[in-house]
Amino acid sequence: MSSTHVVAAGGRGGATAPRPPARRNRLGRSVGRSVPLIPSMVLIAVFLLGPVISSFYGSFTDMSLTGSAAQGTKFVGLENYVQLFQNPDFLQSVWLTVLFLVGSAIIGQNVLGLGLAMLMRNGNTVVRGIVGTLVVTAWILPEIVAAFAAYAFFHDDGTFNELLALVGIHGPNWLYALPMVAVILANVWRGTAFSMLVYSAALFDVPEDVTESAEIDGAGGAKRLVYITLPMIRRSISTNLMLTTLQTLSVFTLIYVMTAGGPGTKSSTLPILAYQEAFKFSQLGLGTAIATILLVIGAVFSVVYIRALRPEVD
Predict the structure, then answer these.
(1) Exposed/middle/buried for 96, CB within 10 Å: 0-12, 13-18, 19+?
(2) What is the pLDDT of residues 76-106, one digit of tens each?
């Protein structure tokens, strides 16, 4: 038998070799680097994970602000969820939430933000200054101030209809006739600055020699955007889509100030419905169930973004 076979047989039949010292040292360094993170992990668990777990449990109870349920909360299982899915107002709120999300975040803020970022990159100093100031001003305003400004703009006697009257157009009462259009446009105005800043930073990282070479090869502006620019900023697109989606799903003040979910329930998104069920009708269990469903919707969109826009491995 050759020496090679002897070694192989000895490796199979012999005792397990001890862990190399280098591997133990790497494990020790990894544990040592994780120790300073323990306080932040505890804070995240208490202030983020804790409320989520509490809300999830509350959605299976009959918690209430008034009545006997306020004194003794009982576990009711899936009763709140069954009641919600049998309620046509809830199903309408789900549809309005998706419409508000797609119209104002996925399409509105991202497309307009990318367009403004490209304008900022290609424009001169004056254009960049004017556009940046106008767009960022809406973003830095407190949300309650922006909400009242949007309410005044879209009111029947507001600025928008006054501008339309200058060209002979009699505009409707946007907050009553087209409430979702009004709140979608208001949220686009309010949040586009964030997308513009994200895409501006991403576009400045696109090498100019690549786009110049494509231009020399005869690629037009649309082709350069589709085949060069967008693939190179996929990471920024994925991140921005996720952040704007989660932010838009939680919009409450803007809609509540402008329409309060009305007229009727025509602009009652899930955050508005959760507030009404929990504090107007005192049904905390139903309100937390709606909040849990809203959390699930946000998680679904996040998973879709991660899988569909996953950047290629370098």
Answers:
(1) buried
(2) 889 999 999 999 999 999 999 999 999 999 8
Tokens at residue 302, please?
């996040």
The tokens for 23 are 């591997």
**Which residue is listed with tokens 């909360």?**
73
C-beta separation of 61 from 76 below 8 A: yes
pLDDT of residue 29: 66
123: its two tokens: 């424009």
Closest-CA residue to 69 (of 277, 284, 276): 284
Whole-prediction pTM value?
A: 0.81
The count of other CB atoms within 10 Å of the CB of residue 275 is 18
Express the helix, strand and coil content of the chain in percent, nearest 5 each: 75, 0, 25
Q: Which residue ranges make up each domain of the chain?
A: 83-308
The CATH number for 83-308, chosen from 3.90.180.10, 3.30.565.10, 1.20.140.10, 1.10.3720.10, is 1.10.3720.10
Cis bond leading into 88, ω under 30°? no
